[in-house]
Design brief:
With 52 residues, the chain is mainly α. Helix content is 92%, strand content 0%. The radius of gyration is 23 Å and the shape is rod-shaped. It starts with a helix and ends with a helix.
Length: 52
């Protein structure tokens, strides 16, 4: 294997790792957004109960 092939393989592996990390970050952001929406829903519900 030539040094160029070794470099290509290493670069491809790093890109795959970066893509996987980005996908995990996207999933974490989706979860955080869902948790914020749930908290907003509960806050609204509690405020509405306080108005009764």
């Amino acid at each position: 294997m030539t040094w160029q092939q070794e470099i290509d393989i290493a670069v491809d592996q790093e890109r795959q790792r970066a893509n996987a990390a980005e996908a995990r970050a996207d999933e974490i952001q989706k979860q955080a957004d869902a948790e914020k929406a749930r908290a907003d829903k509960y806050e609204k519900m509690l405020r509405d109960l306080g108005k009764l």
